[in-house]
Amino acid sequence: MIRLEKRPSPSQGWTAATPLLAVALTMLAGGAMFALLGKDPLAAIRTIFWDPLFGEFAWYFRGQLLVKGGPLILIAIGLSLGFRAGIWNIGAEGQYIMGALAGAGLGLALYPDAGRWVFPLMVAAGAAGGWAWAMIPAILKVRFRTNEILVSLLLVYVAQNLLASAALGWLRNPEGAGFPGSRNLSQWPAAANPELIPGTGMHWGVVAAFLAVIGAHVLLSRHQLGYHIRLAGQAPRAARFAGVSPGRLTVFCMGVSGALAGMAGLFEVTGPAGQISIDFASGYGFTAIIVAFLGRLHPVGILLAGLLMALTYVGGDNAATNLGLPAAAIQAFQGMLLFFLLSVDVLTNYRIRFGRREIA
Amino acid sequence: MRQAEGMLLEVEGLTKAYPGVVANSGVSFAVAPGEVHALLGENGAGKSTLVKTVYGLIRPDAGRMRLEGRDYAPASPSEARRAGVAMVFQHFSLFEALGVAENVALGMETPPPMRELSGRIREVSQAYGLPLDPERLVGDLSAGERQRVEIVRCLLQDPKLLIMDEPTSVLTPQEVEILFHTLRKLSAEGTAILYISHKLEEIRALCDAATILRHGKVVATCDPKACTAREMAEMMVGASFAAPARAERPRGAPLVEVRGLSMPSANPFGTPLREVSFSVAAGEILGIGGVAGNGQDELLAALSGEARAAPGAIRFRGADIGGLGPVERRRLGLCAAPEERLGHAAAPDMSLTENALLTGVVREGLATRGFVDWGRTRGFAERIIRAFDVRTPGPGVAARALSGGNLQKFVIGREVLQRPEALVVNQPTWGVDAAAAAAIRQALLDLASGGAAVIVISQDLDELLEIADRFAALNEGRLSAPRPTQGLSLEEIGLMMGGAHGMHEADIAAAHEAEAHAG
Predict the structure, then answer these.
(1) pLDDT at position B167, please?
(2) Which end of chain A, N or C, is less packed with Cβ atoms under 10 Å?
(3) What values do phi and psi take at A355, rounded to 5?
(4) B83 touches chain A (CB under 8 A)
């Protein structure tokens, strides 16, 4: 008989080991899935995990890691603060879109100004757009006790429609011969978010992601606000006893995660994506949820998880083109990662006992 | 050890170990038919494990039991019930939304038709002086009445042995009297009672024999009627300890004043506070008694600042603090320690250092401009551990790894070491062993001697009478007028607590009469 026995305190070793175990289990199950699809599982896994880092075209893929990882990390850091406090912002995708729309909208209103302050202003507008979109579920929750999971999630679909109408209508490039999509911001120097060091994929969004990792780490480990965030998540009643206002904490956590998601959207629209287009939203806001949990809601963990997830994106694209794997298989593969992570998580707080013993 | 002849229950060499702790080690004792037998011991001495073994909830690792001379090894409570063993738990297992009779039926394997069952309930409850209306909703009953439901449920099985786990912790003194009448009547009819308690005076009043457990072992047996409470306490603890000493204290000006405080409960099943008024002076200890669930949590929340009060309802040093939160109140000098240690007073998964920060941050200056000084915080945690003898490997240990008593010492110590001007505590010694309880009470007395106003909310009347200068009782959210504890009789206290819930004088008289017949 197998029994679960609660540990007196969470195991430090397993806290670090569960993500690795989850990755290993994902490779096994994913390999089985690829085999069922008629592909060589070893080749598929090598194409996803090995080739982008050390293969023939690694010089291209390595840069893509930071391009994909940057927004994931930036968004996930913001989400992790709320998740730690028990505030579930599921709508980062919408905040990401609204940040991009607000920032790009401001930039396009200033076109063709060449001032150096255009880009910083757009970043601020991007953060403000994401923040404002996140304030809707936050204030509804504080005022009317609505569920922030539902409200923030549903607002994603509203944002997606706003994006479509912007790309087709009010932000459409007047010189674009009627094609959908805005002016190309990455080709307008005052608003562009270029690659800072050629070949690395490093752009301002990646810089912001690294700064967010450091900031979140300091906040959580050194600052009273970070302590209150952890306290509210672990023991809400104790947090109230300590003097934490649940409403204010909700507004803060939703606001930060919205602002960071909005900034990520702005960096994307001015850099790698280049313009507002119908298919601008690529699911970063949802994948960031996986990244946040894969990183154990810890800033450094999120940094590593973001890079790992970027690798599955880049490697997945690689596998799709080279091996003809369907895109859905790659998504299922990413889903397995979260599934296994959550299921082996139980080992942190419980130990497995084999053998028969009567239940007390 | 008395020998086998004619014993109802014999327990021999019972041993049960859990990972890291031996709950029972070679425990032997015997209960005669009709005997009221006390199991006495501190928290964690192994009393509960022992009776759960007798009731078939736990299988022992070694040892054997005999019931009426036959081997007895129940695999489940239902087997134990068939053999004639019944148990009333400390925490009731009743459905609030169902009626009394329905609840009783749920606990039976083959319940009779509802009408017949109601008749039986009425019959049994009257015969034993435990009036109970089978049609009433359990949700509307007081704690004492709910206990009657549990007892009647057991009595319907005609048990040979009735186990009662800390039955008086939820009762007013009047209700305790009624319960004792019932138990004596049962005993006179030949039902043996295994009575678990750590209240020594009760055991002296009720029990014929006592088995005293310490660290899972039987350390003594005695005749409680021939022993003093102090002797039994020392057998329980295994050492003598000083009773808290009361120093004469100068009484200062009123520090905390509460006037007409009414407040809904944050909890849907809670009790709203209704027109609560009292004042506590510097150097004074106000004891607030009452049966659990009569507004204790709500009163603590109102005083700690977790719940905001109407303007003017709570004053501290004459200033209105009703609208201030916990942090501002702490800054002024009003600290609090709630009843629930894990999850309210402390965060279970956080270290003791992090938990020291929880309330200590303001008065101990543990953060500057929001940045936490973890070194100083650890120092504060270590001071608490040292001053209050908290048994733990160190301040890095998670709060949930501590035993209840040790964590309680930490929680109380955290507030006391902040040198508050006023301290509110709810159930300061609940689940704490006798020596630690004495230390906590002494710390509260010392705090008051130093000029602080102390409000102790507790369900332990002995504790309140021991340390409080004045006593008031909460009953359905109302607070009785505080009275000096000196010269206060148990009878008067009981009436302040609401008397016997749902009973009339006539019922009490009937209970007396029933006992007279039985006796």
Answers:
(1) 84
(2) N
(3) 100, 165
(4) no
- Would you call A235 and B304 a contact, using CB atoms and an 8 Å cutoff? no
Domain boundary among B193, B215, B240: B240
Is residue B188 a part of any domain in this protein?
yes
The amino acid at A67: V
Phi-psi region at B481: left, alpha or beta (left = phi > 0; alpha = psi -120 to 50): beta
Contacts of B348 in chain A (CB under 8 A): 234-235
Q: Please indicate, yes or no, whether residues B301 and B191 belong to a single structural domain of this protein.
A: no
What is the pLDDT at residue B2?
43
Contacts of A11-18 spanning 24+ positions with Cβ under 8 A: A11/A347, A11/A348, A11/A349, A11/A351, A14/A347, A14/A348, A15/A296, A15/A348, A18/A296, A18/A341, A18/A344, A18/A345, A18/A347, A18/A348
Residue with tokens 């403000």: A128
Cα B329 from chain centre: 29
CB contact under 8 A, B59 and A238: no
State how far the alpha carbon of B85 is from the alpha carbons of A242, B74, B160, in Å.
Answer: 47, 10, 6
- Within 312-341 of A, beta carbons closer than 8 Å to B belong to none
B112 within a domain of the structure (yes/no)? yes
Query: Does the beta-carbon distance from A230 to B350 stay under 8 Å?
Result: yes
Examine the domain organization and report whether B270 and B287 are in the same domain: yes
Q: Is B57 inside a domain boundary? A: yes
| CA-angle at B424, arms to B420 and B427, nearest 5° | 130
Can you give the CATH number for the domain in which B91 is found? 3.40.50.300
Whether the CB of B344 is below 8 Å from some CB of chain A: the reply is yes
For residue B304, give the nearest of A223, A227, A241 by CB distance: A241
Nearest chain B CA: its distance from A223 CA (Å): 4
CB contact set of A126 (below 8 Å; sequence gap of 6+):
A99, A100, A102, A103, A262, A263, A265, A266, A267
Quote the CA–CA distance of B54 and B65 in Å, as a whole number.
8
pLDDT confidence band for B513 (50 / 70 / 90): low
Kindly state whether residues B264 and B220 are assigned to the same domain: no
Q: Which residues of A touch B338 (CB under 8 A)?
A: 241
Of B213, B240, B267, the last residue of a domain is B240
pLDDT mean across residues, chain B: 87
Range of the domain at B382: 342-419
| Mean pLDDT, range B341-346, rounded to an integer | 92
Residue B480 burial by Cβ neighbours in a 10 Å radius (0-12, 13-18, 19+): buried
Q: Which chain A residues contact residue B307 at CB under 8 A?
A: none
Does residue B353 share a domain with residue B327?
A: no
Mean pLDDT of B383-401: 91
Contact status of B217 with chain A (Cβ, < 8 Å): no
* Each residue's pLDDT tens digit, A56-69: 888 888 888 999 99
ipTM: 0.85
Distance from CA of B368 to the nearest CA of A (A): 9
In the beta sheet, which residues pair with residue A14?
A: none
Number of domains chain B contains: 3
CA B429 to chain centroid, in Å, comes to 9
Residues 372-411 of B with CB under 8 A from A: 372, 374, 397-398, 400-401
* Model confidence at B516: pLDDT above 60: no
One domain for residues B411 and B304: no
CB contact under 8 A, A222 and B349: no
pTM summary value: 0.79
| Domain assignment of residue B494, yes or no | no
Q: Do residues B218 and B189 both lie within one domain?
A: yes
